UniProtKB/TrEMBL annotation:
Principal cellular location given in the protein's record: cytoplasm
Pfam family, one: HisKA_3
Superkingdom of the source species: Bacteria
Residues in Histidine kinase domain copies: 200-400
Assigned keywords, A-Z: 4Fe-4S, Coiled coil, Cytoplasm, Iron, Iron-sulfur, Kinase, Membrane, Metal-binding, Transferase, Transmembrane, Transmembrane helix, Two-component regulatory system
Keyword Endoplasmic reticulum part of the UniProt annotation: no
Species this chain originates from: Streptomyces tabacisoli
Protein name in the entry: Oxygen sensor histidine kinase NreB
PANTHER family, alphabetized: NITRATE/NITRITE SENSOR PROTEIN NARX-RELATED, SENSORY TRANSDUCTION HISTIDINE KINASE
Catalytic activity: ATP + protein L-histidine = ADP + protein N-phospho-L-histidine
Amino acid sequence: MRESDDVAGAEAGATDSRWLAALMHAAFFLLLAVALARFLLRHPGGARTPWIIAFSAVLAVLYVVGIAWAGPRRSTVRQRVWLSLVVAVVVVLVVLAPSFAWVGIPLFYTGLRTLPTRAALILVALLTGLVIASQVRLAGRWDPDLVLGPPIVAMVAAGVFLQMQRQAARQRALIDDLIRTRRELAAAERRAGTLAERQRLSMEIHDTLAQGLSSQQMLLQAAERVWASDPGKARTHVHTAASIADHNLTEARRFVQDLAPADLAHGLEQALRTVAARESGERLTVRVHIDAGERAGLGRLPDRVEAALLRIAQGALANVREHAGASGAAVTLTLLDDQVVLDVADDGCGFDAGVDVVPGVRGHGLAAMRARVRQLGGDLAIESATGEGTVLSASIPLVRGPGGGWPRSSPRP
């Protein structure tokens, strides 16, 4: 049920209230017409007849004016003055002709809807007493039915109406509270979405631009150290730094365009080999192995899975280059029947695998990798010990499409 459904329910309640008011108005005019016709038939030439006709016309006009003045939701001083005039005219008519007492019955509803509860109950009691007195006067005798019947009917009618009013008030309060709660929930969801998007962008920037800038810094520092002794080697470092800067520029432009990894233009396998070649150098050799299994002919993996695996590989290799002191690293992509597994192993110095933040190491690479894998319902495992190298393994579940392949887009779990 949405907020529009709540509003529709409130509008339906207002429509029901208008129908009830219309019914009471029709009953008032019908009872007035019947009482006037009865009096004219029984007293066609009486001395009171002109007065009865005049007061009946005044009462009808007053009631029509009151309908035009009536507010949709709340009473006003003008409505209360109008109701007092109507009741006064009804009392005069009843004094002149007791049969007009039943005209006051529809005024129960008007009083209960217009006046405060205590004043409305006093009006109901007054009109009920008027009906009893007029009926006893017409009957010419004391009758328990005439004395007890109208009060019982009045109590039932007033009780039912007041209970309906209380239920309607509770329902309006509940709808208002529900609408307010849904608006607050929608605002909270927007804030959560904004924070999630910020986290995603921070991981993208960390895994691409920040790591590229770090590599450029290291290369330029190395070129500065050997510039005088070995200009050729220094130029090689500078050219490599320029190549990384060009790649970072491509990544930055892709951020503006659609935030997709630029390396994935030719598929995940080629992207992993490109990253491995970029990270390889005179101090580190990176090898890539693809264990496709049933991969042939089934198309590419879902976009979000390929992007996550590429970013994890980039982050892991950046950590190997900057912190592991390794001479060799291996990237293995294994495609199983229901999941894809990426392993990055190195022969470096290793670290305590029980922490996501390594002392003396800047950034939040491991935490970002875990967040990426969890967003796709997968797991990230790290095996490492000081002096024994590191193996990072990311596994992400896959769901095959109707044709046996994997859908290009995967839903958020």
